[in-house]
Design a protein that fits this description.
The chain has 294 residues and is of the alpha/beta class. The chain has 2 domains: 134 residues, Rossmann fold (3-Layer(aba) Sandwich), CATH 3.40.50; 146 residues, 3-Layer(aba) Sandwich (Rossmann fold), CATH 3.40.50.2300. It is 41% helix and 15% strand. It contains 12 helices and 10 strands.
């Protein structure tokens, strides 16, 4: 997991996975052993922990996102790897195709690219006055530019100018968001990124400081104080990943298990944050929300 050990969000996801695995008949400490490594967001630490995990001789590894799958694949082409969350495993070269991965990796994508356009639509609905939107994306991954492309394609219809805000490490957040926030009528989209997710407290602080209405790619941002999100149910993703781990432990090959897209999406809105930004949430938007934080 590319999170620090005391991150309650990461703990909740691991807990959901372990519970689903137990429901499938595998109990940690009884007929199974689960070793967990919280590597944090630093690439060197992730590589070190990836090597440690593989040195344990696991029957299967659960790996969150491209930042962990990549280092694992640099060390093994045989140990089965299941990802509960990833952007585009085909573009990253991890699988041959979604239908038939073909190698030792499979799992679950955390969005379809069309979802990125929905972020802009929802932000515009929440803040009709927004005319400029910065899209915070990880320039180191193929999904960052691809997500921006979808957002850019729908922007003319919504009469919004979109600007890519490229990040490569956490030190970029302050400057790219600060520079963008100098203009008027701005909003922010924080696209799917493990780097952004692990440093979400920094991003939430910057959005609040610069009075930027923002929509995020995971609902944990909203739970922690962000304005709104539209995203797959991450707990559900980890439960489904447990199903794949169960099937692999019973003899199936990861290369034969298709990569799946999300089946459940959640629209979350934080009313306290909306009030702090001086926004009135449209009733139509509020009625569609799956999760409302007051």
């Amino acid at each position: 997991m590319p999170f620090v050990e005391d991150d309650p969000y990461a703990r909740a996801l691991v807990g959901a996975f372990a519970m689903a695995l137990q429901q499938a008949g595998w109990t940690d400490g009884s007929n199974a052993r689960i070793d967990i490594r919280f590597a944090g967001p630093t690439p060197s630490d992730i590589r070190r922990h990836a090597a440690e995990v593989l040195a344990l001789g696991p029957d299967v590894v659960l790996a969150f996102g491209a930042t962990t799958v990549g280092p694992l694949l640099q060390n093994t082409q045989t140990v089965p790897i299941v990802f509960p969350v990833i952007g585009d495993p085909v573009a990253a070269g991890y699988v041959e195709s979604l239908e038939r991965p073909g190698g030792n990796v499979t799992g679950f994508m955390n969005y379809e690219y069309s979802l990125a356009g929905k972020w802009l639509e929802l932000l515009k609905e929440m803040v009709p006055s927004v005319k400029r939107v910065g899209v915070l994306r990880n320039a180191n991954t193929p999904t960052g530019p691809a997500q921006f492309g979808v957002i850019q394609a729908v922007s003319p219809y919504l009469k919004v100018d979109v600007t890519p805000l490229n990040i490569r490490n956490a030190s970029d957040f302050e400057s790219v968001i600060g520079d963008f926030a100098r203009g008027r009528d701005g909003g922010l989209i924080v696209a799917a990124s493990s780097l952004a997710l692990t440093k979400r407290s920094v991003l939430l602080g910057l959005a609040a400081r610069h009075n930027l209405p923002a929509i995020y790619a995971e609902d944990i941002y909203v739970i922690d104080g962000g304005l709104m999100s539209y995203a797959p149910d991450m707990v559900d993703q980890f439960r489904r990943a447990a199903g794949y781990v169960d099937r692999i432990l019973k003899g199936e090959k990861p290369g034969d298990l298709p990569v799946q897209t999300p089946v459940k999406y959640v629209l979350a809105i934080n009313l306290k944050t909306a009030k702090a930004l001086g926004l009135t949430v449209p009733p139509s938007l509020l009625a569609r929300a799956d999760e409302v934080i007051e």
